[in-house]
Each structure stands twice: as C-alpha cells, then as structure tokens.
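1st attempt posting a full record on here, be nice pls
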Amino acid sequence: MFPRLKLSDRITWAVLVWIFFNLLWLKFLEAFIPLGVGTAIATLGAVAFILFAPRPDGKNGEEEESEAPKTEGGTDRG
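the predicted structure (as tokens):
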C-alpha cells in the first residue's frame, strides 16, 4: 500500500501528518475532547508509522542508514 521509504522520508511524512491531524482536531473535535488527547493519538500514530512503514529492500543499491564509502583492506583510517 505504501511505497518503500527511507528513514528520513518516514520522519518527514510522520511530522507532516502529525501537524495535519492536530489541525483537524482543533477544527472539529477540540470543543468536545481536549487537544492533549489528539496530540497523544497523533504521536502514537507517527511513531508507529516511522517504525512500521515499508523500508527499502536494498536490492537496488539503496542503503538506508550508512552511506559511507568502504576503504580497501576493511578498516576505516582517518
């Protein structure tokens, strides 16, 4: 359902959806339920999205976390 996203993409989308969710909560539900409840729900949803959204499969050369070049000999010397 979702495209495969890198960690930075998942964080960006989680923050955008978190803000949008809270704005909708303020507009439609804040008169009935406090904003703190909506913020807690949005935060849990954002964390779940970051943790469980599909990651790149690595078959097409995409690396998610470390993109540092490897040196010859197997050691990093700086």
